[in-house]
């Protein structure tokens, strides 16, 4: 064969590798293609393979007849070399019989950070920094409020002092910007030149911060910025890329990952829907090895064993280590009044007929779930108002129901006849807390529900924050500082991350919940965070309607929290799944959620 009989290089998105054979090598290339499950043959002499697939099956290239003629693009060759080294290093850490002499001990961390590091570290933060420095790449799955931002910055600073990296790219939600900028100023005597991406990347910046929504539009420019100097790529709230290559955020992260010298993920909810989420995160951190490691660990179904296997690859600070007061959410089941029940059952039958045969259509089922969650609170939320988010008008006292009312008219006029029991319970809780001088955080998925509650709770001067709120900071400030403002109304999709309310509020009420376990956990941690005095009295109430989709959601969240608690060896998560009695709405849906939903619908035939 001619020299350079096989050339390998990145595709444009860097998430795939292109293999090009010289003329005459077509038959050998076809045989090689059979070794890769993701292979797409672009021409007789060109293959395209997913990067993860290639790295996991490098041994397949040993079958190429002209080994001396294989040529690697420099960037790909560097990644393959690093990946092989990482695989050996990870295997070493996973072997309990092996003594890893390269491990960093926590007492060494202050020396590694040097005199320019001025931010104090708790013992568990110092432990986490040491473990992450012991790995070439890593994951910090510590609970929200444990100081993952400071740990991530410390890891970068130590690597920068050792000249392993020069630049830091942080990908996170917009709500994380403030924390990164503050930690940069507080922890470093000479802060990094840290810039929030606004236009083209600043070539003089030491660190760039970009949000997930903007990332896909900036992959090319950010890829060049990462490649210009040894860099670290850090994903904050990394569960946002849990769909991996199948999602917009995940695809962008996977495209940038190979261009970074070091990779680190931060999230307190790494597996909100099960092992697939964990596969995506570990696949980003260790291409070609991480995903396979997770699959093998959980294949037997023994979560305790899987946790023991995976534990060397991540660090986690638990709630117990934070010495926080115990939080025991209670579910308060309410009975739907007769007209609510009549309308809900009729709607459920309608959705059952609509959903039949479309179990695989997530978009259609997502709409069904949204309707059912609304109906479990008040079917009137589904009626058309003058605007999409028009609040419901309740009459006090309620009117009598006309005998000739049609079901559609009844749904539209339901607030005139019956009060939503969830709203009534929420109002009762908020009023009781206000009498004691306590503030309450009320969560609901739907803006129309929030607007209805705002009108009902007007005497408590409510603050309201949702996706359409223009003065978000002012509303939050008013809730914190105005003694007359006794309630904050929000939805987990908007306020579930990046804000601390634990100094001002110790009571929370959930009008509804969806299937997104990660979002539920994140929202709980707005009032349960590091710095909360151990003797604080916390109260969290989840309102749920009997005989509705709320029961399905409760069971599925229970299953997900137990899985996550098992895989992370965190009993507090497993306990949280068993509540005591007292991404869009379809976000978080997985096949088990679909089966549970269809079971609920089949119990209400059309």
Summarize the structure.
The chain is 43% helix and 14% strand. The strands form 3 sheets. It has a 7-stranded parallel β-sheet, with helices on both faces. It has a 7-stranded parallel β-sheet with strand order 15-16-14-17-18-13-19, with helices on both faces. Strands 3-4-2-1-5 form a 5-stranded mixed β-sheet.
Write the layout of secondary structure elements.
Blueprint: E1 6-10, E2 16-21, H1 26-33, E3 40-43, E4 46-50, H2 51-56, E5 70-72, H3 74-94, H4 109-113, H5 123-134, E6 138-140, H6 148-161, E7 167-172, H7 177-187, E8 194-196, E9 207-211, H8 212-215, H9 219-227, E10 231-236, H10 248-256, E11 262-266, H11 275-285, H12 290-298, H13 303-310, E12 314-315, H14 319-322, E13 330-334, H15 338-355, H16 362-377, H17 407-417, H18 421-435, E14 440-443, H19 447-456, E15 463-465, H20 472-481, E16 487-490, H21 492-495, E17 507-510, H22 517-524, E18 539-545, H23 549-567, H24 571-577, E19 580-581, H25 591-602
What's the CATH class label of the largest domain? Alpha Beta
Mean pLDDT across every amino acid position: 83
Helix content: 40-55%
By CATH, the architecture of the largest domain is named 3-Layer(aba) Sandwich
